[in-house]
Each structure stands twice: as structure tokens, then as C-alpha cells.
Amino acid sequence: MNKDSKSRVDEKSKAFEDERNKLRKELEALRTALNDLKSKNQKTETDLKKNIKSAEDSLADILREYDVQMETKTKELSEEKSNLVKMQEELKERQEYFKKIEEERKRETELEKQWSIKMKRHELEKQKRLEAAKVTLEFLRKMKKFRADRRKAEKKKQKAEKAK
């Protein structure tokens, strides 16, 4: 081989070695960067897993609290419904009671009207009897006076006939 060719081979060999070293350094830098990224990503992944676990735990706590609240509210609602039913029954009973009272008042009012009418009739009858009694007494007085006057007149007439 000649020198020129050897020198070209040496140059190419050196260029190859330089390129190879450059690529190795670049590869080493990329491996280091990859390892750094892996480490960083692993830390980020660990942090994310912790955050997810924390969020899951928090959500579980919230759900448990929600379940407890819903159970309490369900019991309260059930009690309120029960109270409502009792109050509606009591209201119905009281409405029926007041309806009976109102009917009794109407009946009493009607009886009072009837009694008032009867009392007025009784008073009228009483007044009529009193008037009839007065008229009868007056008639009897006049009758008595008439008879007494008639007897007097007959006695006078008899005395006058005897005197004649």
C-alpha cells in the first residue's frame, strides 16, 4: 500500500475513532440523561402515586362521611315522614271532632230557635189566657153587678108593689 493510501486509511480510521468517541460520549450523555429522566420520572411517578393514594383515601373518607350523613338524613326523613303521617291523622281526627262540634252547634241553634218559638207561643197563649181571664172576670163582675142591680130593681119593684 502506498503511503497515500495508508494515510487516507489512517485519516479515515482516526475520523472513525473520533466519530466513534464522539458517538460514545453522546451515547453516554444520552444514557446519563435517560437515567436522570428515569430517576426523575420515577420520583414523579412515586409522587403521583402518593397523590393518587392520598386522593383515593380522601375520597374514601368523603364517601364514608357522605354515607353516614345520608344514613342520618334518611333516618331523619323517615322520622319526619312518620311525624307527618301522625300529624295528618291527628289533623283528620280534629277536623272530624270540630265537624261534630259544628253539627252540635247547628243542632243547638236549631233547638234554641224552636225553644224560642215555643216560648213566644207560650207567652202568647199565656197573654191570651190572661186576657181571656180578664175578660171573663170583667164579664163575671158585670154579670154580678147586673144581677145585683136586677135584684135591687126587683126588690124596689116588689117594695113599690107592696107599697101600692
Mind explaining what this structure looks like?
The protein is an all-alpha fold. It is 98% helix and 0% strand. It is built from 1 helix and no strands. The chain has one helix spanning 3-163. The longest helix has 161 residues, at 3-163. It is rod-shaped, with a radius of gyration of 67 Å. The model has no long low-confidence stretch (mean pLDDT 91).
Specify the structural class. mainly alpha
Rg from C-alpha positions?
67 Å
Strand content: under 5%
Total strands: the figure is 0
Average pLDDT rating: 91
Quaternary state of the chains: single chain
The major β-sheet equals: none
List unreliable stretches of 5+ residues: none
Distance between the ends: 227 Å
Write the layout of secondary structure elements.
Elements: H1 3-163
Task: List its salient traits.
98% helix; mainly alpha; 164 residues; single chain; rod-shaped
In short:
The chain has 164 residues and is mainly alpha-helical.
